[in-house]
Amino acid sequence: VVDALQCTEYGTAINVKGWVRSHRNSKAVDFIALNDGSTINNIQVVVDPETIDAETLKSITTGACISVIGTLVQSQGAGQTVEVQSKEIEIYGLCPSDYPMQKKGQSFEYMRKYAHLRLRTNTFGAVFRIRHNMAIAIHQYFHEHGFHYFHTPIITASDAEGAGEMFQVTTLDLERTGKGPVPYEKDFFGKKTSLTVSGQLEGELGATALGAIYTFGPTFRAENSNTPRHLAEFWMIEPEVAFLDKEELMDLEEDFIKYCVQWALDNCKDDLAFLNKMIDKTLIETLESVVKERFVRLTYAEGIDILEAAVKQGHRFEFPITGWGMDFSSEHERYLVEEHFKRPVIMTDYPSEIKAFYMKKNPDGKTMQGTDVLFPRIGEIIGGSVREEDYGKLVHEIEARGMEKESYNWYLDTRKYGSCPHAGFGLGFERLILFVTGMQNIRDVIPFPRTPKTAEF
Ligand code: 4AD
Ligand code: MG
User: How far lies 362's CA from each of 15, 217, 329, 357, 412, in Å?
Assistant: First the structure.
């Protein structure tokens, strides 16, 4: 369809296949809007009732899948330049009237119950084409900048974030009991293993060998966060670079996000125009301004000052501002970005206690060189830091946090043998897609969302 819509060689014989979006009839002819997923735009098929049996024509309802052989002609109607004059229609699959996606304008909550069918709607078609394009942009960016795509394991034996939010991996044994699947008594790997919460630690091994790497893969968190911005299974992009300092890390974060957003503006015009009309009237404007403006760079302490000043001026937050040492909620992050600065913010130098063990401490001993990127409508979109490269300091931190040093020995070897300064970050892929599409809920930007109490497929 995307090719047919661009073709102007009128009179060309053509075969289009797709799903019926709508079917209406005027006195003389029937109009079928057909979509094959290649573009948000439908192609109009004009059917002369003389060319087809009346019952068959009537059976072609919304959602049915058909193949049309006909001629590409210049369209007389408004809204399209070409259409297909049908000669012959083959029906691949009829669509009974209980088709859950038949009625237009259903709520996203309703459509989530039909995640397997919502893919066929205009909005989800647009979202998932953009998702594809963002994946291409990410690979393109890193390839152009000399990063190597590095595959880190999904099954791991250590907790990369040290936060204890992991899904354990066990084996099932059907045969032994005959009573259905039960966990194997002896662990397959001989030790406890889980699904990865981040590829960073293995990514650091890659960076200290290949110079600059990035990962791009599924990530799993057993955090019980039922919010529009958390998933139990999400995709993360984690670049890691040797010899990078804090300023350069922030430059990389900003340049990378801007590249991806610009890519969407350049390559997803029709889908963005659709979402701008249907989902968020300020979408394209917001994307354009993010690409143009320099991100604000702010320390955590400055952030706290701004929030405290806001409270003094009468602003009310749902989560109280308790001063230095508090963790920001997305409400606080969004206040800074949406109301105070009206621009994305890179926040740095958090208190060490509220961040992960691997982050490099500042000489003050209190704060560390973290660099989170906060975005309008999203809150935290990137979490990053300079890494502690000193063996002794890192061991001290691991022990002070009560973590099991033995399971990090392989990681500590990067510091033991030829340690180097390095830094990296993680971007939540779905949070980027949320921002670029204007969608409100993270469950609506991944084809099959996994959240607490839901994993239907
Ligand atoms: O801030 P996080 O936890 O950082 C890390 O995992 C580091 N190891 C990254 C690194 O430095 N290599 O997660 C990074 C990003 C967050 O900023 C957020 O965008 C996303 O991953 N994220 C989630 N996205 C969806 N659902 C969740 N439950 C998420 N948790 C984190
Ligand atoms: Mg974080």
Answer: 65, 31, 24, 13, 20
Interatomic CA distance for residues 401 and 421, integer angstroms: 23
DSSP type of residue 387: B
Nearest to 142 by CA among 216, 219, 198: 216
H helices of 185-230, where? Answer: 200-210
DSSP 282-315: THHHHHHHHHHSPPEEEEHHHHHHHHHHHHHTT-
pLDDT score of 450 more than 80: yes
Q: Are 236 and 217 in contact (CB under 8 A)?
A: yes
Please determine, for residue 80, whether its predicted confidence score (pLDDT) is greater than 90. Answer: no
**pLDDT score for 223:** 86
- Name 99's Cβ contacts closer than 8 Å, sequence gap at least 6: 61, 62, 63, 117
Amino acid identity, position 240 = E
Task: Give the CATH architecture of domain 117-444.
Answer: 2-Layer Sandwich (3.30)
Over range 419-446, report the average pLDDT.
98
CATH number of 2-93: 2.40.50.140
Distance CA 85, CA 123 (A): 27
Ligand nearest to the CA of 223: 1
User: What is the distance in A from the centroid of ligand 2 to the CA of 453?
Assistant: 23
271 close to ligand 1 (CB < 6 Angstrom): no
Closest Cα to atom 19 of ligand 1: 428
Name the residue at shortest CA distance from atom 22 of ligand 1.
428
pTM of whole model > 0.80?
Answer: yes
Going by C-alpha positions, the residue among 174, 168, 252 that lies closest to residue 207 is 252
Tell me the pLDDT band of 183, cut-offs 50, 70 and 90. low
Q: Which residue has better confidence, 456 or 33?
A: 33
Instruction: Reduce the DSSP state of residue 375 to 3 states and report it.
Output: strand
Sequence-ordered list of residues with C-beta below 8 angstroms from that of 337, at least 6 positions apart, any chain? 343, 344, 345, 374, 375, 376, 379
Which ligand is in closest contact with the Cα of 165?
1
pLDDT in tens, 205-249: 999 999 999 999 999 999 888 899 999 999 999 999 999 999 999
pLDDT at 292 over 60: yes
Bigger pLDDT: 80 or 344? 344
- Pocket test of ligand 1: the residue of 345, 375, 431, 446 to mutate, having most ligand atoms within 8 Å of its CB, is 431
- Report domain extents, the chain: 2-93, 117-444
pLDDT average, residue stretch 15-44:
95
* Cβ(422)–Cβ(244) below 8 Å: yes
Q: Percent of the chain scored above 70 by pLDDT?
A: 96
- Determine if ligand 1 sits within 6 Å of the CB of residue 221: yes
